[in-house]
Design a protein that fits this description.
With about 200 residues, the protein is an alpha+beta fold. The chain has one domain: DD-peptidase/beta-lactamase superfamily (Beta-lactamase, 3-Layer(aba) Sandwich), CATH 3.40.710.
């Protein structure tokens, strides 16, 4: 998970970026006074338990799957235009890490995200006029309040140009509340920007 950028700042050009949290055997022993069980490994492998991630980290992971293995530094813009001279300075992509996992494994996840659209909880995106890959999620964070709703997607599936990650606090579940937001955005993007 660390290779995918979990529990580290990715360096986006805004203040206040958080690194999230990935528990370890040492942390659990020091903090909870408990040993690490195989169930802890299972929990963190699906993002449960004490794992904390940011929407930016989930979006970066989505990009890694879409581009098949490279973690890029996120940027808010792709060029700067001097207002007086009109000179353009292009912001080149910066690679943080390459070949994060075996290509076959990444492609298996990528096709799983496609199957989520074709057959699973991401089916709403199948109404788009282009192919996508996506994943829903639910963050159980309180015993007295509704779960957070997650949804992440990339498009087009064959040659990704965009990704989107939605987090709706107390949104119950990704397919119910976050997927429709992603659908509306991707539909608008497809009508206005798809090349």
């Amino acid at each position: 998970m660390r290779k995918f950028g979990i529990s580290e700042k990715l360096g986006i050009e805004i203040p206040g970026e958080k690194e999230g949290f990935l528990p370890s055997k040492k942390w659990k022993k020091d903090t909870k006074g408990e040993i690490w069980y195989i169930g802890d490994t299972y929990n963190i492998s699906i993002g449960q338990g004490d794992v904390l991630v940011t929407p930016l980290q989930i979006n970066s992971m989505t990009n890694i799957i879409a581009n098949e293995g490279t973690l890029y530094k996120p940027h808010l813009l792709n060029k700067i235009i001097d207002p007086q001279s009109k000179e353009e300075t292009k912001i080149d992509p910066t690679i943080i890490r390459k070949d994060i996992a075996e290509l076959d494994n990444i492609r298996t996840v990528k096709w799983g995200m496609r199957d989520c659209v074709d057959y699973g909880s991401c089916r709403r995106l199948s109404l788009l006029p282009f192919n996508t890959g996506a994943k829903t999620g639910t963050a159980q964070w309180s015993s007295t309040k509704d779960d957070h709703a997650w949804f992440t997607a990339f498009a087009p599936f064959e040659n990704s140009q965009i990704s989107i990650t939605i987090l709706i606090e107390e949104g119950i579940g990704g397919s119910e509340t976050a997927a429709p937001v992603a659908y509306d955005f991707l539909k608008w993007w497809g009508e206005n920007y798809l090349k």
